[in-house]
Amino acid sequence: MASRTTNKREAIKVFIVKNYPALTEDGVSAYCKENLSGYKRQKYIKFRDDLCKTNVGKIPRRALHASA
Fold first, then answer.
1. Do 48 and 16 form a contact (C-beta atoms < 8 A)?
2. Cα 22 from Cα 41, distance rounded (Å)
3. Residues 31 and 16: beta-carbon distance below 8 Å
4. What is the spatial distance between Cα 35 and Cα 41, in angstroms, rounded to a whole number?
């Protein structure tokens, strides 16, 4: 999702449900650096136990913005 930075620009923030204990922020960053163009890469990574969902199964982005 897009997130505002301190200088009023947008940066990509990624929320990851951590299913594998070996998954690290450095590992995710290295993978994205190898496989994505610079403008597509995330600036922030946040691990979560789960993502809340609405009654119809969608992830409420406003709730993620508020928790970030």
1. yes
2. 21
3. no
4. 9
User: What is this structure's pTM?
Assistant: 0.73
Q: Is the dihedral of CA 64, 47, 18, 35 positive or negative?
A: positive
Contact 48, 17 (CB under 8 A): yes
Q: Of how many residues is the chain composed?
A: 68
pLDDT tens, position by position, 21-39: 899 999 999 999 999 998 8
User: If you ran DSSP here, which 8-state letter would residue 60 be given?
Assistant: -
* DSSP conformational letter for 23: -
The Cα 59–Cα 28 span in angstroms is 22
Q: Which domains does the chain have, with CATH numbers?
A: 2-67 (3.30.300.30)
